[in-house]
Write a structure and sequence with these properties.
- This protein is 68% helix and 1% strand.
- By secondary structure, the chain is mostly helical.
- The chain has a domain at 226-296.
- A two-stranded parallel sheet has the order 1-2.
- Helix 12 (244-259) crosses helix 13 (273-285).
């Protein structure tokens, strides 16, 4: 508005402009404003729209609420920033430590599976060899224990499981105690520890305890270990205890399921090792029952279309 007024004054002719100024001066000389008293200033209404009034009141209330708490607010903001940094560092470290832990675990597994031989390793070879199984077990336990001590989470738990399994041949009592502790945990390691514990108890002549563990694993809705593997071990234990019918029923179930397995297209699948072994066991215990299991009719295309007998 001031710019428009300036332009208007600038465009008025000089004479008119001068007279306008004179009139303005004369008018100002007759209308001098009276000084306002303090009482008038207090009673003079101040204009505020609804938005300004509400926002102003909220800001004023907030100002009173946080008055004298500036340091606390800054400390709170700083704490949030530090927490975010710590979380970022944690996830970054977790990724790095997980990768390092998996590498260390893999090296320990290689040690546990190293060759036992009296022959020295070829010159320049980095492959580990051991003269006895006891030496290999001791070396593997030491490596697995080092991984468990250094890394936590799933890597450390797996390392403790492998350490216990390898310790069975050198310190059986301690190994069984370790497996019992791991068997109480949930997840993959818990199931693996239960299976190893059942096998150890069966070897120690504690068949009833082993059977209960195997039955619990077989009843799991989503077992980590294949049900055929669990049931086969359970059937073998029934057989050793003289529980022939229970063993026959399990061997039959494993062999029949394997013979009827089909792929997603409905074609018969080759019988796996567990199915073949179960049928062999069944033929020994109950030949007539074994005859009920038919060999699957394999599609030649699933075998590569190669004729046999030529």
């Amino acid at each position: 508005m001031e710019k428009n007024l300036s332009r208007q004054l600038y465009n008025v002719p000089i004479a008119e402009n001068c007279s306008f100024i004179k009139m303005a001066r004369k008018k100002r000389s007759f209308q001098q404003p009276l000084p306002q008293t303090t009482e008038d200033q207090k009673n003079k209404p101040r204009y505020q729209d609804h938005f300004q009034q509400n926002v102003g009141r909220k800001i004023e209330d907030a100002g009173k609420k946080f008055q004298g708490q500036g340091k606390n607010i800054l400390y709170g903001i700083a704490a949030i920033a530090v927490l975010a940094i710590i979380i970022g560092i944690f996830y970054s470290y977790n990724r790095r430590s997980n990768a390092a832990g998996q590498t260390a675990l893999g090296k320990a597994i290689e040690t546990s599976q190293a060759q036992v031989t009296d022959s020295p390793a070829p010159a320049g070879s980095t492959t580990k060899t051991f003269k006895t199984e006891k030496e290999r077990a001791e070396a593997a336990v030491a490596e697995f224990q080092a991984v468990a001590d250094k890394f936590g989470g799933s890597v450390g738990e797996k390392a403790r499981y492998f350490a216990a399994v390898n310790r069975l041949s050198i310190d059986r009592n301690t190994a069984i105690q370790d497996l019992e502790g791991l068997a109480n945990s949930s997840g993959d390691v818990g199931s693996l520890a239960k299976f190893a514990l059942a096998h150890a108890k069966a070897d120690d002549g504690k068949a009833d305890e082993a059977i209960e563990i195997y039955k619990g694993l077989a009843a799991a809705s989503d077992p980590v270990i294949a049900k055929d593997t669990i049931n086969f071990a359970l059937a073998e234990l029934y057989e050793k205890k003289g529980m022939k019918q229970e063993a026959v029923d399990l061997y039959f179930s494993i062999a029949k399921t394997a013979s009827e397995a089909k792929d997603k297209d409905g074609k018969a699948l080759p019988v796996g090792a567990a199915g073949r072994e179960a049928k062999t066991k069944l033929e020994q215990l109950d030949p007539e029952k074994a005859k009920e299991i038919k060999e699957p009719e394999m599609d030649p295309s699933s075998l590569g279309g190669m004729p046999f007998g030529n």
